[in-house]
Amino acid sequence: MDIEPVATEPAAGAVLQARPVRPGEDFSRVALTGPALALLEKLWDRHGPLMFHQSGGCCDGSAPMCYPDGEFITGDADVQLGVFGLPGRGDLGFWMSREQFSYWSHTHLTVDVVVGRGSGFSLEAPEGKRFLIRSEILDIP
Question: Which Pfam family, just one, is annotated for this protein (predicted)?
Fold first, then answer.
């Protein structure tokens, strides 16, 4: 059986790392690829400030869902993993349910884009593209 190596530099191919926001953490947990950043800039221009919430539902295939900032109400059941400073626009938070984070806490997530239809609730759906997550094991103590 092959064993995947532990990533020492998370998010190969990422162009923008999120600022860490979790207490006591000084490393990024989430990043954007160039295509994801380009699509987010287009969506920001159309919809204003944005946010991500990592879906854990069966129907969305655990997809990163993009909403106008504040449209998806977060609370004690959610964890903010990081904040992207989108150049020339502003901050974009990335959230996940606390329960899902308990399973994914050892991973670094990279938001990417592929052609195809995702969820009708995420802002990129009309573009004929969908956000997806690529994950790597974090090398953290």
Answer: DUF779
